[in-house]
Amino acid sequence: MGDVLAGIHSSWEFDTDSVLIRFERGIRTPKLFQILGERRIPYEALSSVELTPGKRKGTMVLRAVPRRGADPLLEAAAGQLKSSADPYRLLLPAERETLGEYYADELRAVLPPDAAEPADGYLVAAPPAPLQFKAYDARVAFDGDVVSFRWFSTGASSAKWKAGDQFFQVGELAGIEWRSPEITGGHLRLLRHGPDGEPEPASGEPDQDPTAVCFGLGYGLVHESLPLAAAVLAAVHATDPVPAKVSAPAHHRADPADIADRIRHLGQLHGAGLLTDEEFTTKKKELLAEL
């Protein structure tokens, strides 16, 4: 195709075998897009194309739907991304609807014959290492070979302090479990190989598990923790002939002591003027609802 379709927050540059998505930088652009910068999506990584009216008046949405198993970023997200942070979504002004229809048809014409089937492996590159972010209880880093958890004295549980800082070689991992920080109980858990080759079962709540870090208000933000989770998942997939696992985290009853600690932390933020009365009340209710 060789053309460029400019939208709001990003533009799509069409090539013979792929589309290059370039994300804009700016205060209104989702932070995840700014971190990603740009992504090249092979046409073979797509399953379908949609063109629908946007939620914002006077807009249209062109969305290229990825094949299951083609993109480690979406595999790690496991359906938890908000639509506004979907990197496969191009928001267009309504006056470009005709152009949107044209490119939607062009993309449909180059979809692979097996587009409806899951991909055999990752076809889209993960964000490159090194990557790091602050969780509520640890600093997390990934250098391409090792994931490290270095516990914070102000957030880590006694169980984690007793276990000491953790270092995980990619080769010992079977996958990851990422629960969005925008959802109650957000965390990142690393899944290790068990004796039978399957991922070991989770050992308790994330706040007590040394293979997991907890998110919280201002910690483990999507644009910080998701790229790292995707990079780890892609590295595991590259070193293991068995497909890397992404676990869909279940909701468990929270530890009352942990909830009390997190409420105290909220109170400190509120007292420092970093949270409004309404924000403090809302977050406190969310935490109490976990009990």
Explain how this protein is built.
By secondary structure, the chain is an alpha+beta fold. It contains seven helices and 15 strands. The chain has helices at residues 31-36, 72-77, 97-109, 158-163, 222-239, 256-271, 277-289; strands at 4-6, 10-14, 18-23, 38-42, 46-53, 59-66, 89-93, 131-134, 138-142, 146-151, 166-169, 173-179, 187-192, 212-214, 245-246. Strand 9 and strand 10 form a beta hairpin. The chain starts with a strand and ends with a helix. The mean pLDDT is 90.
What is the SS-derived class? alpha+beta
Task: Determine the N-to-C terminus distance.
Answer: 55 Å
Query: What is the strand tally?
Result: 15
Task: Indicate the percent of residues in helices.
Answer: 25-40%
Low-confidence stretches: none
* Principal-axes shape call: globular
Strand percentage: 25-35%
Mean pLDDT: 90
Helices and strands in order:
Layout: E1 4-6, E2 10-14, E3 18-23, H1 31-36, E4 38-42, E5 46-53, E6 59-66, H2 72-77, E7 89-93, H3 97-109, E8 131-134, E9 138-142, E10 146-151, H4 158-163, E11 166-169, E12 173-179, E13 187-192, E14 212-214, H5 222-239, E15 245-246, H6 256-271, H7 277-289
Helix pairs in contact: 6-7
